Amino acid sequence: HVQRIRAAMLVVGAGRDIVVPGGDARLICAEATCEKELIWYPTDEHCALTHLDEWSARVAEWMANKLK
Q1: What's this model's pTM, rounded to 2 decimal places?
Q2: Residue 61 phi, psi (nearest 5)
Q3: Helix (H) and strand (E) counts for the chain?
Q4: Cβ proximity of 55 and 39 under 8 Å
Q5: Is 6 exposed, middle or buried (0-12, 13-18, 19+ CB in 10 A)?
Q6: What is the per-residue pLDDT across 24-51, written as a single tens digit (0 to 9) for each?
Q7: Alpha-carbon span 18 to 54, nearest angstrom
Q8: Which residues pair with 11 in a beta bridge?
Q9: How far is CA 63 from CA 16, 43, 45, in A?
C-alpha cells in the first residue's frame, strides 16, 4: 500500500533495530513513489538514539521546509 502515499515522507531507520527492522525503512523508501527521503544509520539500534540530536534536527528542518 505504500505506493498509494502521495504526501512527502521522511523515514528514519536503523540497521540494528529489533523493534522496527531497518530493512522495513529501506523497503518503504524503495517502494514509495511519492517524494521521499531516508535518514539511515546502519549500525544504530531502535530510534537511532545515539544520533538523536542529529536526526531530530534534520527532521525539524525537513518539516519546516515542507510547511512553508
Answers
A1: 0.88
A2: -65, -45
A3: 2, 2
A4: yes
A5: exposed
A6: 999 999 999 999 999 999 999 999 999 9
A7: 21
A8: 38
A9: 26, 25, 23
